[in-house]
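Hello again,

I reread your note about wanting to compare the complex against the isolated chains. To keep things tidy I'm splitting this into two emails, and this first one only covers the full assembly. Below are the input lines as submitted, including protein chains and any nucleic acid or small-molecule components. They are followed by the predicted structure of everything together. The single-chain runs will come separately.
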Amino acid sequence: MAEQRLYHRPALTLDTRLRRSAFRRLYTSGSPVSVAALAADAGAGVDESRATVADMDARGVIRVDRDGMVIGSWGLSVLPDRHELWIGERRFWTWCAMDAAGILGALAADGRIRSRSPLSGATVEVRFRAGRPEPTAAAVFLAERAPCASVYEDWCSLVNLFEDATAAASWVERTGSAGACTAMDEVTRRAAGTWRPLVAGLTAAERVDAASGLTERAGFAGSLFVVRYLPAAPVGLALVVCPPILADQAVHYRREVLLARALGARGIEVVRFHPRGTGNSHGDPLETTFETLVADARAAAGLVQADRAAFLGTRVGALVAAAAHPGAPLVLWDAIDGGDFWREAFRARRIRGLVDGGAGHGGSVDDAEAQLESVGSVDVLGYHVGRPLYESVRSRTLAGELGAAERRLLRLDGGGRWWFNPDPGLEEVQHVADLIAAWLPS
Amino acid sequence: VSGAQSWPEEVVFIRSRGSDLFGVLTQPAGEPEETAVLLLSGAAEAASFGRNQVRARLARRFADLGFPAMRVDYPGAGESTGRAPEARLDEGSILPLVEDAAAVAGWLRERGSRRLVVAGSCLGSRVALTCAGRVPDVGGLVLVTPPVHDYDHRRMPESGGPQGRFVELMRDAVDAGLPVLLVYGRPDRFATDFELARRGELGDLLRTAGDLVTVAMLDHAVYDFPNTAGQDAVVEAAAAWLRTHAPRFGRSPCPSGQEGGDPLLRLQDLLDG
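Full-complex prediction:
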């Protein structure tokens, strides 16, 4: 059933998972990677992973050093190899010329490839801007695919960069190698498609607001979708926004985006995130619990650059914000206790069922609870709600999450005005941003 | 830092009409097909991932079939900047959104896509339909609850509505040879309107179109994705349609034409041994 809902991807083979993880870790860290780390990423045992890595090393589809550390995967190497690859100011190496072009193309990065022509030994350099080669006569020889014992030794060693097509042709004539000489831009265009799935999520999308200079950086931190708002003139304070859940998330969504921008323009760093199993994040909503919501809020808070962070939570998000960092300053917006939240949600579900004549909804609160008990999940206004979420939120109260610790609190109760206005006016958002900016400790 | 995403996804801001449009591109695990899918939401949705992530799930399902899929927030919605579109279906309201779709299509083309399937729900379905012939390389359409009348979201009559360009646009798509999937949920008023329209000119057009137009009439409500069963049914129907048409949208023959072998297109096989 969960597979039909498509929260889990059908498993890739272990060797693919290990190679993929190795590539991403090599790119991210620029250092050799232990098999244990790859095994953890792949959700596999270390011994099984070690055996698989050894087999792949023998087939030349991964590279391992004498200490058993992985140094290369999917053509990318963190130790010197045949072709030097600069991605911005970071230096890597690749097994073949096509790897270098594909990686730069997939990343849409500025950079350059430095290599030696197999014909003349001359240095050949190709510069890239935004993932595209600058005009060049250089060309890549692409060897024909053929069964081989080692991809690294037998195939990659033939795929080289030449000063121009004529040089490549001379080399082919001399060596009798089978394949085709291809222009740099064509190689890049086509190879980029191979590396795009590998680099996806490694880079963030960025926009800079022309008026305020605020940088908005959206991307993934592991499975979490995160947007960071980095002010041009930071005041040393940050706000972590804990969103509400289920239908509340959609209702309050745009308001939180606009508020983050308004606070960012006032010098306050903001981090927004989508808890796992919601929004753009990955994960199965049926596995979401109050504890995972808090863990995700803490993970988002870990991205804060400022020295001091406050939290803002809306509706059930207020309970999450309260629990995420005891003692931290807290903005509570339309906070609601867990029991009241479910009563409201189930009542809305019942009303919708009555209006729609039972089109997938309906039933009393007791019916919804009985379904959670018997089936383990229930549809609440088009959202999958699992028993773990229901039970872990039901008994939570704001008072309980606040505890006895002393902390600064700002309580905002927008009530119906926000509830019925998912597209808030900028003026209202600016007003709330002023309130929060004035309240945050200086 | 790595391996935690279930599907490889890339986020992007794309400039269009003075706004930064936010998009998420879901990539297949292996080499992608050269056809990408552009997913457009309805007017009432807060962001392009959709209620209960339905559009994110749709994108991920398409990626599992080998097709990169991009979901985009309209201006003024989700993470995009700018002003929200009017929830109206007249041409004057739709064409600016078609311009946005064209900007996204251009970005996808720069990333190697050669054809585009545009898949939209409600307002998005009418934007998708209007993209045919206006956005280069559109090769197919998935239209979920497309209204046959040009409603104004704020003044929807009990039934019927102002006559619009739906049939004309459908005819353009059929004449262009585009395969089209129409998805309706039987309990929705849009399905009733569609069935009524089918008794007239639209019915004639659908009969003429033959296999080119597929109609999936689902048992669940689908408009605004109000329940999970309807969401799952839409994902399944769209995936089944894309699978059926995969030969049409699949990888084009080796560009260089040489037998046995474009090594780039076979790289995955090579590395998999």
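For quick reference: Residues 252-271 of chain B have pLDDT under 50 and may be disordered.

B.
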